[in-house]
Specification:
This protein has about 400 residues and is an alpha/beta fold. The chain folds into 2 domains: about 140 residues, Aspartate Aminotransferase, domain 1; about 220 residues, Aspartate Aminotransferase, domain 2 (3-Layer(aba) Sandwich). Helix 8 links the parallel strand 5 and strand 6. It starts with 9 loop residues before the first helix and ends with a helix. Helix 4 packs across helix 10. Helix content is about 40%, strand content about 15%. The strands form 3 sheets. The chain has a 7-stranded mixed β-sheet, sandwiched between helices. A 4-stranded antiparallel β-sheet has the order 9-10-13-12. Belongs to the class-I pyridoxal-phosphate-dependent aminotransferase family. Its cofactor is pyridoxal 5'-phosphate. This is Aminotransferase.
């Protein structure tokens, strides 16, 4: 019999690969590109973290096996301590903390247990594309709440987005893709909206340590949200462990019990070497990680100086956190066309702004996660491109 075309699920048809992954793939075909694209900090895994993993793999046979399904007990206790110190959130490490395969798995598990077919999730826009794809994969519908022109959070837009179908709101601050750090008053207003309308808050704190002008406020700090919140964090950005794929989440036990079922069928447990690395990073010397944040702050200043020199071609809002800038360019070329031109003609990777939804039109997302030499080379190439 002739081969038949596979029948794919509707859920797979709802989602797509993000432009943050596609642009480096295109650049690899061109060759010789420098990157202002994907959000990866340049720092290597600290030596004491690598040593801890190597030592464990050599001396402890369990280091290469499964951990308990929710994660290593010592790591869950350390994460609970982190929540208590930095957010004032008391969490039971045995029943309210999950160690996940990166923050992404924890976010997806939360979405899959909170969102049913036809439910709505409020997403501030511009948005992190994977948040939207996860809503769609869960069968839900993302409803966008535009940020203000300066990329600050607009509680009024969140309130206007609420309907009888709204199930949750997802907030990330410091924000990807804009680098905005949302004001405490605006976050408190969103918390009040969530309580008033019986919504669950998904708090994505991936960049919480990368706030350069003042400490970032997290929705996880608001006690009134404790029983209606999933708070997700990542070891990738703060501890430069992107490739180790370890994240974590807090949720009250009724939510966490459901998330653990998803985690079990998707991953069983986070990789043991990654968990060992995360524990070493969280419990070891912290000065190296403070140095990472200081270096990224200096890179932000470098990127802003270079953008100021390109003010005839690019405009931007100075970011207060993360390592992203949304730069608006002159002209009417679609963002994908502009990003492709920069790859082919300037050999610089950027991400088209409309990949981040409403508010990203005529814009490019630039990352300053690269080291200063690569940043300088990238902006030198942009100078030549726009100076033609």
């Amino acid at each position: 019999m002739p081969a038949q075309t596979p029948r794919f699920s509707r859920r797979a048809g709802r989602i797509k690969i993000s432009a943050t992954k596609l642009m480096p793939m295109l650049a690899a075909e061109v060759g010789g590109c420098v990157s202002l694209g994907q959000g990866v900090p340049s720092f290597a895994t600290p030596g004491f973290v690598a040593d801890a993993v190597c030592d464990a793999l050599r001396r402890d046979p369990a280091a290469g096996k499964y951990s308990l399904q929710p994660g290593l007990p010592a790591l869950r206790r350390a994460v609970a301590g982190l929540f208590a110190r930095e957010k004032g959130l008391t969490a039971d490490p045995d029943s309210e903390i999950l160690i996940s395969v990166g923050a992404m798995e924890a976010l997806l598990a939360a979405m899959l247990v909170l969102v049913d077919e036809g439910d709505e999730v409020i997403v501030p826009a511009p948005y992190y594309p994977s948040h939207v794809e996860q809503v769609l994969l869960s069968g839900g519908r993302p409803v966008f709440a535009p940020l203000r022109p300066d990329f600050s959070l607009d509680p009024g837009a969140v309130a206007r987005a609420v309907t009888e179908k709204t199930r949750a709101v997802i907030i990330t601050s410091p924000h990807n893709p804009t680098g905005a750090v949302f004001a405490e008053a605006d976050l408190r207003a969103v918390a009040e909206i969530a309580v008033a309308h019986d919504l669950t808050v998904i708090c994505d704190d991936t960049y919480d340590s990368l706030s350069y002008d003042a400490p970032a406020t997290s929705l996880a700090m608001f006690p009134e949200l404790r029983e209606r919140m999933v708070a997700v964090g990542s070891f990738s950005k703060r501890f430069a462990l992107t490739g180790w794929r370890v994240g974590y989440a807090f949720a009250p036990r009724p939510i966490m019990d459901q998330m653990l079922k998803v985690h079990d069928c998707a991953a069983i447990c986070a990789p043991m070497p990654g968990q060992i690395a995360a524990l070493a990073a969280l419990t070891g010397p912290q000065d190296v990680f403070a140095g990472f944040a200081a270096a990224l702050s200096a890179r932000r200043d470098l990127a802003c100086r270079r953008l100021d020199a390109l003010s005839g071609h690019l405009s931007y809002v100075r970011p207060a956190g993360a390592f992203y800038i949304m730069a608006r360019y002159r002209g009417d070329a679609p963002p994908m066309d502009m990003a492709v031109r920069l790859i082919r003609e300037a050999h610089v990777i950027t991400i088209p702004g409309d990949a981040f939804g409403p508010g990203g039109e005529q814009s490019l997302r630039l990352s300053f996660g690269a080291d200063e030499a690569e940043l300088t080379e990238a902006f030198d190439r942009l100078d030549r491109f726009f100076g033609k």
